[in-house]
Write a structure and sequence with these properties.
By secondary structure, the protein is of the alpha+beta class. The chain has one domain: Alpha-Beta Plaits. The protein contains two helices and six strands, in the order βαββββαβ. The strands form two sheets. The protein has a four-stranded antiparallel sheet, with helices on one face. The protein has a two-stranded antiparallel sheet with strand order 3-4. The model has no long low-confidence stretch (mean pLDDT 89).
């Protein structure tokens, strides 16, 4: 890895669009310094999510953070949302410039 790059975690959340208002405030509360949110479409265990109307829309939220924040986010998501909503979360290693932002 380049000396200019620093290791962080990329937490990706794919969930029902209806969760945006509930979930986004929780990100900062659990230590995230920022996030990127985009619309998402696809097919999975709950069928096709084509985004034709709000009830069939998904969003994708990405958070770059350190391992401690990533763990807090995963724990919170599992405890608060997994039982009642369609949600997928995955965490991968990332190498970033300007680590102080994350």
């Amino acid at each position: 890895m380049s000396p200019a790059l620093t290791s962080r975690k990329l937490v990706t959340i794919i969930c029902e669009a209806e969760l945006e208002a509930l979930l986004v405030p929780e990100l900062a509360r659990h230590g995230a310094r920022g996030y990127t949110l985009t619309e998402a479409r696809g097919q999975g265990a709950r069928g096709v999510r084509d985004g034709a109307w709000r009830a069939s829309s998904n969003i994708r939220i990405e958070v770059l953070c350190d391992a401690t924040v990533a763990e807090r986010l995963v724990d919170m998501l599992q405890a608060r949302f997994y039982a009642d909503y369609g949600i997928v979360v995955f965490v991968v290693d990332a190498a970033v410039l300007r680590p102080g932002k994350f």
